[in-house]
Every structure is written in C-alpha cells, then in structure tokens.
Amino acid sequence: PPTSLAIRGRLLSFEGDPAVEGPSVVRFWEDGTLVVANGLIEAIGESGDMLAGRAKGLPLADHRPHLVMAGFVDPHLHMPQTQVIASFGTELMEWLQRYTFPEESRYGDPAVAAAGSRFLLDELLRNGTTSAAVYCTSHPQSVDAFFGEAERRGLRMVAGKVMMDRGAPEALLDTPQRGYEESKALIARWHGRGRLSYAITPRFAPTSTEAQLEATAALAAEFPDLHVQTHLSENEGEIAFVREAFPWSKDYTEVYERYGLVREKALFGHCIHLSDRERTALAAGGASAIFCPTSNLFLGSGLFDLEASRAAGIKTGIATDIGGGTSYSMLRTAAEGYKVLALKGEKLPPLQAFHMMTAGNAAAMGLGDKIGRLSPGYEADIVVLDSEATPAQRRRMERVETLGEELFCLMTMGDDRSIVATYAGGRLLHERDKAPFHPLEA
Length: 442
Ligand code: GUN
Ligand code: FE
What we know:
Elements: E1 4-14, E2 26-37, E3 40-46, H1 47-52, E4 60-70, E5 72-78, H2 92-104, H3 110-126, E6 129-135, H4 140-153, E7 156-160, E8 162-163, H5 176-190, E9 196-202, H6 210-222, E10 227-232, H7 236-245, H8 252-258, E11 266-270, H9 276-285, E12 288-291, H10 293-298, H11 306-311, E13 315-318, H12 330-343, H13 350-364, E14 382-385, H14 391-397, H15 403-413, E15 419-424, E16 427-431
Parallel strand pairs: 1-4, 5-6, 6-7, 7-9, 8-9, 9-10, 10-11, 11-12, 12-13
Antiparallel strand pairs: 1-2, 2-3, 4-14, 14-15, 15-16
The chain binds guanine and fe (iii) ion.
C-alpha cells in the first residue's frame, strides 16, 4: 500500500486546546483534501489549493459527497463482552454474576481471547471507531491477545488486565500480589510498543480487597504516566455495597482517592450518582468521567448529568460500554446520549456530540495531541460518513439545510450503514461497499 495518499471530501474537524475536552473551534471544508504520509496527516486545505500543491500526483481517494472526520474514539468498553450484549432482565450486580463473570471466565483460553479480540476490532472499524480504552479479563493471555490483534491492524489502543480478587468465580480472581505482578509484566511487554498503551485496570471497588487496592496504589505510583480505568457510581446497589465494604470512606470516590487513583488519565466509567464533593474531587485530580448512555439505559442504572460534570470542570467523554452497552456505534451512542440528557432537560447539540466522539474523547483520554482531529501532525485515523445511507435518511435529508441539521440527523438516524470507510494509521481498514478486508490475510 502507498505510504502517501490524498483524501478528498467534506472535511470536518475540531481544533482548540488539545488538553481541553470542552466545545472547541469547528473547521469545515465543503470541498477539502488532506494528505496522509507515513501514518500521519501532513497537510489539509481547500481541494483547489491542495490538488495543485501538496496532493499533486498522489493516489487520491475521492469520497465526495461524503463527510470526512477524525476516527471515533470510544473511551470505555469490555473486549470479553461481545457475547454478553442483550442479556435479559437484570441490573448491574446481578448482571455481572449471572451473565458477565461466567462469560469472562472463558477468556483464559488464548483462542477464545484471540477470536473475541479479532471480532471486536473488526466491528469497531466497521463502525468508524479507531481508538478505544478497553478492559480485557483478569487473564494476562486476554491482554496479549487483544494487543496482538490491535498491533496487527496498527491501531492506537489503550487496554489492561482487570484486577479483581473477590466477589467472582475462582477462575476470574487474582490476588493482590498476582494482580500487581501480572500487570507489571504486561506493562513491560506492551506499553509504548507502537501505538499501544497500558491502562492499570482495577475492575471496581466491590471486586477488590483493600490489600489489592494497596497493591494497585503501589503500581500506580510506580507508573505515574499510565492510564487508570475503573467504574464509579453506576448503580444504587453497587454504591450500597461500597458503603458497607469501605465503612471508613465518606463516599465512593474517596475509596479511589485513598489509593491514589484519582489523577490525570484516570477514566471513571459511569459517574451517575455523584455528590458535589465527588465531582469536585474528580476535577481537582484531573480525572475523566465517561458517560455510557446505552449501558445506563439498558441496565437501568440512571441518567448521567453532563451539565453538572462540565460545570464541575471534569473532563467528560462518551462511550459504548460494550457489553452492558448495546451498540458498537458511536452514532447510536450519541443518539441515546441525547435522549438521556433530554430526560433531564439538557441538550446535546450535534457539533458538541461529534466533538465529543472525536477530539473530546481523545482529550478525555489524554490523547488530545495525537488523535481526534484532522490536523497536520495528527495520526491519520479517519472515518468517512454517508448522511444518506438509508431510505429514511435520504427522505429526511431532503429537508435539511445546514451542516448542523445534517449532523443531527446523522447521529440520530445513523449506524454502521453510514460508515463508508475507516482508515487507521493512514491505512484503509474498512470499506463498506467492498468485501470485508482482513489485515491478517494481507
Ligand atoms: N462494573 C464493574 N464491572 C462492570 C462491567 O463489566 N460493566 C459495567 N457496565 N459495569 C461494571
Ligand atoms: Fe464498563
């Protein structure tokens, strides 16, 4: 494949401070062309200028009239839960025991973990998602499988081995010592290799003893630049459990604060039932809150308060949470996010939603200087979107006049059928109208 190419279409990107996840400057080229070289975006501008200049003579992918934007970023999902999605009838704690833990127990088998990782990454690419923060299982083999598949595809991925030493079947439990040592070995093997980063991943407070949280604190202190990912304040039953298990703590967030886990690049999934004190603590620590709307609706967990999260100054992302979540699509996720906020009288305007799915989620993950926008020097992770992929979309688009309206229809009505092509690291890894592309056979 060529190391340089040009991509033409209706280009949309969000600029502004790469460390800040809030709404930023919108850049739009109705007929734009960008140049990709060596996996990076090298130049971007009006097609007239670009085709006579930097893009001259390069292979050209002409995606007009489709929209072209940075690949979607999904800051919270579970690799071993692709066969847990749509498990009937439970809230979080029972859902974990009845469906999720038995399923995750299978992932000690490297063949199961490899098949699950392959499926997940192909499906993310089919949905336009090029980067994610991923929970594997407590088995180190599951992390080897996942990172191996991500490396083959050249994806920027953040992932980690789940640490959990209580409250689950034996096959899923580690110990404080083993969780620490296995995590440390995985960091040595994978962190910083190509585009891969390791995330220290205690599942959540209910499945770790204080001894394990102490070992986690030691690991986090040894690796202050690493991501941390866990769950926080998702479900009332979960919160009651934490209150009993950590009687010294005034609230859920203080448990994580005590062990040094509320810090930059710490991603807290859900954050639904937080007090003002907890929001202030997350903001002060530089941590991120991750809104998981399809999961929160499906498990009946509650309604995330985006306004309160933003007002407190917390970096905020939006994610699928597969397999509590029900769709791999960030478009479907944004649509459900809009509805959750509507129930609270809040609004999620389309430009803000697309900013969140790209540059905002990248910033919430501390990757705002590498991915999430179409700017020179950024990694060439790109999605091409068709606003008229279905009869219903085509019908609705007849009455659309502005880019904002188009984007709102795209997020409200769109899904994988709207994903025309997905590039990662400058390579075309998914094309809607072609047979599935398998990098492994290439
Ligand atoms: N809390 C602890 N583990 C999980 C999980 O796997 N999914 C969700 N949604 N919440 C959790
Ligand atoms: Fe989760």
